[in-house]
Amino acid sequence: MNNDIIKLTEDFVKHIHKDDTSGHDFAHVDRVRKLALHIAKQENANPFIVEMAALLHDTVDDKLFDEQQAWDRLNAFYSTIDISDAQIDEINHIIRYMSFKGGQNEGKLKSLEGFVVQDADRLDALGAIGIARTFMFAGKFGEAMYDERIAPRKDLSNYRDQSTAINHFYEKLFKLIHLMNTETGKKIAQERNAYMQQFIDTFKKEWHEPF
Asked: Under a CB-based contact definition with an 8 Å cutoff, are residues 172 and 100 in contact?
């Protein structure tokens, strides 16, 4: 039964993200799903709740969609699959509070499954993939690659205000290694964060010393 629900959810998510060019396509969702299931196995989390939340986590992202319309669409989808109200509540809690949102959601997740999916999503924002997604997102929303006149923001209360791709590393990405929840996530984050730091160091060297 769960396999049937997962397949229907995959199809739903693929349709929603089919035209994405911001780094939040189904390939991202699938990587998060695989990372989350790996972490769930190591941390003894409920694999069904983890997989469902990983698949659905960006369907209500207000960076991408009108939030109320997205929740209405998701609730309509739930009515087409055989899933309990308790399971829906668990999944919705995760996808409502797992996003970074300038640090505004810190401390709001309450379940192991939520910690697992949050770690998986954050891991896909790190390393080589994270670098690529950062520049993809910046290009999609008209942000500069780098402008040394614009300092990284310390106040992220208006975290969706435009910045630059490079500033995003300082405003969010380099903070994620300290915000990982699980031991499995922390181990994976170490290597990815180190690679990302090396990239930024090289980027700035080439920017300021092009020959």
From this structure: yes
